[in-house]
Amino acid sequence: MVGGKLETVFFADDAVAVARNLLGKVLVRVYDDGVVTRYRITATEAYMGEEDKACHASKGRTGRTEVMYWRGGYVYVYLIYGMYWMFNIVTGSVEYPQAVLICGLDSVIGSGRVGRLLNVDKSFYGEDLLTSDRIWIEDSDEQPDVVESPRVGVDYAGDEWKNKNWRFRVQP
Q: What pLDDT was estimated at residue 153?
């Protein structure tokens, strides 16, 4: 349904498919002051389980990665550099940790900037996008042209993993 909240089945696919399919969808944020803002998702990156050396779950199940082992549709946030909350969406099935990092909304590009725009913090960790009244994703009928490229900032993962074309963005 165009305009309705995305349902569990959408997030049940693997992170690569969900990362592509999120492009053009609408992220809705209800801020603390009651203002409701809708953003078009324009860039994403996929992280695919314990075998993916760029994925946080490559180190196994920890307090930080616990939510990644849940079913798709939950929020995974983490802080980098002590200042940027990174907004991710868990995908796939229970016990197979994977997630999609949101890297662009409308004209805002960069996952740190996205976190700031959304004003997310630790309280969003484990938020259910299916039932939340402060953040969710709605369907749209947009089918944008997609550009694929390697993920950004994952050189530490080695050539095989850093060169995966798992970064997706809307063709300008």
A: 94
